[in-house]
Amino acid sequence: MGKKMTKNLSIAEGMLYSGIGTGTQGFVLASLAMYFNATPLMLSMMMTLLYTTRMFQLLTPKFYKIFKTRKRVLLGTAFISRNAFLIVPVAMFFQYRNPYILLFSMLIYSFFETIVSNVWTAAMNEIVDVKDRGSYFGKRSLMGSMASIVFTYGYGYLLGIKNQEVGIFSVAVFMTVSGLVTTVIFKFHNIPDLKEECKKIDLKIPLKDKKFLNYLKFVAVWVFSFEFVKPFFAYYQVNILKVDPKFLATMGIVTGVGSMIMYYIYGKMSDKYGSKLIMNIGMFLSTYSLIIYLVISEDNYKFLLLMDAIIIAITFTAINLSFFNLLILEISDYPMESYFAVFSIVMGVVALVASVIGGGLGNILMDKTFEIFGETYHGIKIIFLLGMVTRFFAILHFTNVETHIKEFKYKGFLPVNSAMFKRISSFLPEYLKVNKK
Fold first, then answer.
1. Which residues contact 370 (CB under 8 A, 6 or more apart)?
2. Helix (H) or strand (E) run with residue 190 in it
3. DSSP state of 402
4. Predicted local confidence at residue 303, as pLDDT
5. Helix (H, G, I), strand (E, B), or coil: what is residue 372?
6. Which of 10, 238, 301, 403 could bridge across to 330 with cysteines, CB 3.0–4.6 Å?
7. ∠ CA 320-26-392, rounded to 5°
8. Rounded distance between C-alpha atoms, residue 332 and residue 234, angstroms
9. CA atoms within 13 A on the CB side of 282
10. What are the C-alpha distances in Å from 24 to residues 48, 56, 142, 332?
11. 252, 393, 263: which is closest to 315 by C-alpha?
């Protein structure tokens, strides 16, 4: 009974947590950053902090010693992290627009939230049965997407009103309220008692796992390719294209609705065929978003942003659902805390490097333009081009990740049994094998 209640409460917490999650990414965070006069480098660091601070998961045992139990660690760190944004509306009330205020709030939030993530993931690893994880986390993500639609529309509406200060102030207040409510929900979670062997993190155990090391290499390349370019999608929308926040909110709703559908589909496919297939689909299709931003302009952005919203729904639902499932379900063994610590260190270090390189390059290119065949392009597009190249490298590295793969057979209307299709399917593996050499 306790596990069932906790799983239901976790879904509710995930929905309300969207109030913070929506505000710390995309056009909402970019709008906040522009209001506080942040540079591209500072925006890049803000958007990457959640990954960068993961390296501090090694400090989790210290929190165990202080709070004694898993639940107390969860409650204590969640209270600090999810109420860190209270300083933002206070600063705005006194007309204080120093960008370091927002950066400091993001830093406190990200640092303590990484401990929350560690404890929550380890606990849910014990609460949710292995055979149900794909479906359960798919359902949780589905409900979170529904909540994100509401918050995205609301934040977009507030940011689009004539009185910008009132709109941004209201967004900051909603983020703070979301943090307080989700902390209260954690109080009613039935968290398993901390096992003695989980109180210490031994980095040697996961580093002896060859399958896990192959996964880490992929994680390093993927995180760099993702974090290097991530802040500049929103930056390009808000600061260069000057897109109406209400339109961006509408695109967020399109993504949210699409994500609801795809989380359900991918959840079922993940249980049946494994997470690797789903991750492959997501990564490959994610390159199309970068292609869109290479050709987007003030004249065509509405249609292309609609296409991008649909692509994001299809791709990043697959990636979000599979990325941690590969760690929890298919890669790592007990003890989970040790694996998650090494995983988080790699993510944190790589994300920090990517944010500094990407943000520094953004500072250089923010006021630059260049011409190709008489067409003028903004300098930021060089970052999108480099991001696409690094993403292809990530896809190649993913081929070395070993997981249990279940055979996938297409049973649709295409002539898969035709002689021509069989020739292509038999030739393609040999072609890839030659090119891989």
1. 376, 377, 379
2. none
3. -
4. 92
5. strand
6. 403
7. 50
8. 34
9. 26
10. 10, 20, 19, 29
11. 263
d(CA 276, CA 218): 12
296-310 pLDDT, tens digit per residue, is: 888 888 999 999 999
* Residue tagged 């380890």 (tokens): 122
Please tell me which residue, 349 or 333, carries the higher pLDDT value: 349
Token pair belonging to 110:
């990200």
* Token digits of residue 126: 């014990």
Q: Write out the two tokens for 103.
A: 């950066």
Contact 358, 229 (CB under 8 A): yes
**What tokens were used for 166?**
């009132």
Whole-number Å distance between alpha carbons of 425 and 416: 9
Q: 176-219 pLDDT, tens per residue?
A: 999 899 988 988 888 877 655 455 667 777 787 787 888 888 88
Position of tokens 């974090």?
Answer: 227
Are the beta carbons of 306 and 357 closer than 8 angstroms?
no
Cα 281 off chain centre by: 16
Q: Which token pair is 346?
A: 């790699």
Model confidence at 260: pLDDT above 60: yes
3-state secondary structure of 368: coil
Query: Terminal CA-to-CA distance of the chain, rounded, Å?
Result: 54
